[in-house]
């Protein structure tokens, strides 16, 4: 007697531990990735906790307490009515940073503008006399009349 054995049935495939995916075109995938990267960068660049800014500040250097030679030359080269004397005396670190980028008009204008607004939230801001000096520097640099 020849019994034919039925062919074995194929069991369902075992879960492979993989992940589900959705077919998409390259442009949509790029846009989704770009949006995710931008969101991550925004979160990392703009902490909401003011104490976080203190951690991100570069370590102090000796030049933070006194004007550099470059900054002294820069201040003296400015027309007398717009020389930032209070800034130079009370905030040499900031004066040094401005002097360093003064010849790069776009970068300097952006830096000066950023000093006049609070885009982080919770900043104390500059004292009014120093703020006036920064605004005068910005107007001089950009050619905007007072």
Care to describe what's here?
Helices cover 54% and strands 0% of the residues. It is mainly alpha-helical and 146 residues long. The termini are far apart.
Provide the structure class: mainly alpha
Give the helix proportion (percent range): 40-55%
Q: Shape from CA axes?
A: elongated
Mean pLDDT: 80
Oligomer: single chain
End-to-end Cα distance, whole Å, is 111 Å
Strand content: under 5%
Uncertain ranges: none
* Number of alpha- plus pi-helical segments: 7
Which sheet architecture does the biggest sheet show?
none
H and E string = HHHHHHH
The count of β-strands is 0
What's this model, at a glance?
It contains 7 helices and no strands.
Features:
146 residues, mainly alpha, 7 helices, 54% helix, 0% strand, elongated
List the SSEs and their pairings:
Blueprint (H helix, E strand, L loop, with lengths): L25 H20 L4 H7 L12 H9 L7 H6 L1 H10 L3 H12 L11 H15 L4
Helix pairs in contact: 3-5, 6-7
């Amino acid at each position: 007697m020849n019994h034919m054995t039925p062919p074995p049935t194929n069991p369902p495939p075992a879960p492979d531990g993989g992940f589900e995916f959705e077919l998409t075109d390259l442009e949509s995938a790029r846009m989704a990735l770009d949006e995710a990267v931008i969101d991550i960068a925004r979160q990392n660049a703009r902490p909401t906790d003011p104490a976080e800014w203190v951690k991100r500040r570069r370590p102090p250097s000796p030049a933070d307490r006194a004007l550099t030679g470059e900054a002294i030359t820069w201040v003296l080269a400015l027309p007398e009515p717009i020389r930032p004397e209070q800034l130079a005396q009370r905030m040499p670190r900031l004066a040094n940073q401005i002097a360093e980028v003064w010849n790069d008009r776009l970068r300097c204008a952006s830096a000066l503008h950023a000093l006049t607004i609070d885009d982080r939230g919770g900043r104390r801001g500059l004292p009014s006399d120093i703020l006036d000096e920064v605004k005068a520097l910005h107007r001089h640099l950009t050619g905007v009349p007072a």
